[in-house]
Amino acid sequence: MACTWCGISATGWSFTGGEFVIAIASLAAALAIGFLLVRAWMPELQGASAILFLAGCGAALGLGIDSLSFFALTVAGAAGAWWPGLAQALLLAAALWLYRKRVPHARRPTPPPQRRFSPAASMTAIVLGAELVLMLVSFISISHVNPHGAWDAWSIWNLRARYLAGGLASWRYAVSKHIILQHPDYPLLTSSLIAHAWSSAHSIAASVPIAVALLFTLATVLALVAGLVWSRGVLPGLCAGAMLLAVTGWLKLGTSQYADIPLGFYFLVTIALLCAARNDARFALLAGVMASLSAWTKDEGLMFTGACVVVTMVLIGAKPARMVLAGALPVIVFLVWFKLRIAPGLDPMWHQGAGVMLAKLFTGGRYAAIAAQLVKHTAAIRELLILPLFALALGFKPDRAALACFALIGLMLIGFFGVYVVSPYPLEWYLDSSLDRLYLQLTPAFLFAWFRASPGTRGSDTIGS
Amino acid sequence: MKQRLRAAALALALALCFGLSLRSWRQANLETPNEALGGLSRFAGIIRAIPGNGIIGYFSDRGEAMVLPTPPFSVRYAFAPRMLVWYPDLSVSTWVVGDFIRHPDYLRAGEQLGLHLVRDFGDGVVLYRR
Predict the structure, then answer these.
(1) How far is A324 from chain B (nearest CA, A)?
(2) Domain range enclosing B18
(3) ipTM of this predicted structure
(4) Predicted pLDDT at A81
(5) For chain B, what is the domain count?
């Protein structure tokens, strides 16, 4: 009656040396696959900021592919240590081949000449560096006290990761009616990603979800800073990073191991890519892929994907909108299959009936209650008061791309409002337990839009230069 | 003058950002353990004694478990990747976990549900067999 591998490290949060290397190798391979594919997709981009931004996009793509392929293999009955490992090795080889074919030696980027930072940029870089150190120390401190994360992490995401990591014997529990109160219909990007690393290492040590949470948190900072440095200049990029790390709830959510930070990361890279999509359809296609991966992270991503197509169509152009749709389609088809065949009919939203939903739509009191909570929660975000200072320092003049970002965020807020109106849950409890997290999901994307609205300072910083 | 104003605004914004980060770091030091760890340590013994996967029955005299009835989330997490289901409503399992806070007569409590006591792990955690 001895326990098999799956219980060995259940109470600890550290691996043995060999297990740790295997788990990290699984995540590192996912990152490498994503970076090589994105780099091969845009081989001519040059400069450190562009490459770092692509690294952020690559991380998003690679982690998404890893999650999808592990889940697909598990459902197909090919779970276990070596099938997903073999699939990952083949993907890595294919990505490497594509990279070498598309980015030949002669066209590999040469480092641009060193540019001296302005005093303002230097000062901002120092503050950002100090904030990063504080963030890492806080992350380690909180993870040491609560290695299994906060409530939703162990009751939903990591629980389902444990079921998936158990392989053929237990993966169905992750989508089972037995856990109806723990949302078995939720998408599985983070759970499947964690499960793959656990399955590879033959251990369910808590250090994997901690590493994944840290990875998504740092990747968000990287993508925000690099995306803005690339498109707007050094100073707006560094300021955006400093601002993001100052948002108290955002860091706390990162250490909680919730799926909201990965979701916010996908929102961010999607809108950053959309900003560049007007003149290059490849960015639009990649933006579509990222948006659809947000839908594989949390249900809010599905609404985001739809909003992306609409905003791109109206503010950027019909061709980019078609490309966004084309990029999103494969993962959306996968998600539809998941919702209809794997975890069908488990969302309480659809169990309440059309009549009840209609009645809620025509109840004015619900609108007033939601609006009051929106105002209350927005007013509580004191960090917003810093943004006008940055606007004064850097300027604020939204271009069409920044307006598209703001429109997308506005559509999401309207969508959230609509979901609250027809929600099957007690309204006050639902607003209290979710509204702050919805804001934090949109925070990196909102900051990108805000600092993107700084007049272009690419190549020079005007303050104190 | 305008340049100085902009520099001052930037300096103030960065100072506020750093101050907020410092506050987050201080709050991180006040973190207290949540119930996930409690569940894992309480059930560590029985988890080592039962099969590593499959469906396991569960019953309890805990208030929250009686109301739903379903295993508390922290207990379910502790046993995953095994699936804990409420006994006798849903269980088809050979093994049943008893989780008591009132420490009744475990043998009698099991017999009332047709279960044989296999082992008492202490602290109200008991393993039964159907």
Answers:
(1) 35
(2) 1-31
(3) 0.92
(4) 60
(5) 2
